[in-house]
Amino acid sequence: MPWLKERFASDGGSLIVALQTAKIEAVSKVSNWQKIGVLARVAGKQAGRNRTISAAKRAIGTTLRTFIRVAHQLWLEVMGTVFLAMAAFGAFGFFREYAKFHAGQASAGHLLAAVLFTLTFGWFGVSSFWRVRKRQ
Prior knowledge:
By secondary structure, the protein is mainly α. It has one domain. Helices cover 77% and strands 0% of the residues. The chain has helices spanning 2-7, 32-49, 51-103, 108-135. Helix 3 runs antiparallel to helix 4 (108-135). It starts with a helix and ends with a helix.
């Protein structure tokens, strides 16, 4: 086998293979995020085939939907309460401005601003509670 001796011949250096051999092309560099994406895709496909994991995913989805619905309902109720409280403060301000208006110490503009403030925030509060009832 003279060709083997020729192929692996060395000229005295530390060369293992002959210079005529084909060089291996560099492996393309793939980022870690691409590797994680491929891994997640493969794991997702495998998990879709497993009945236990599919059932767990459905259970988590149902629980999250219910939690989000209840959290949104609570948000609407809290904001409705805040708006109604602000409307109540506006009503107290209206009565204070009304007394000043009759005494000649306040203008009609202050009275109108107090009325508009009270009506606006009262509407926000009531409509927030209506939205809660509509969602149920």
